[in-house]
Amino acid sequence: MRGLLGKLKCNNYKVLIAAFSIIRPGVAQSGMMREYIFRHNHPTKFEYFHEVFEKELGETYGIMVYQEDVIKIAI
């Protein structure tokens, strides 16, 4: 967890909560954790998969970090 917080340069509560969510085994094994770290540190060097992702998942850089994010995209 310390390593993840260092990579994210955690400086606020939102980043801390996202870190707790992406450190789960399923997310970490899927590669989404690495992608979130990259997008968090380089917010201008990626493109959203679809405009809905940008609208609904802008806060998490287009990555489905929270369980509610899946529902947002499905709707």
TrEMBL record:
Specify the protein name: DNA polymerase-3 subunit alpha
Species the sequence originates in:
Chryseobacterium ureilyticum
Domain of life where this protein originates: Bacteria
Provide a Gene Ontology MF annotation, just one: 3'-5' exonuclease activity
Q: Which Pfam families match?
A: DNA_pol3_finger
Where does the DNA polymerase III alpha subunit finger domain lie?
1-74
Under InterPro entries, the record lists:
DNA_pol3_finger, DnaE2/DnaE/PolC
Q: Which GO terms describe its biological process?
A: DNA replication
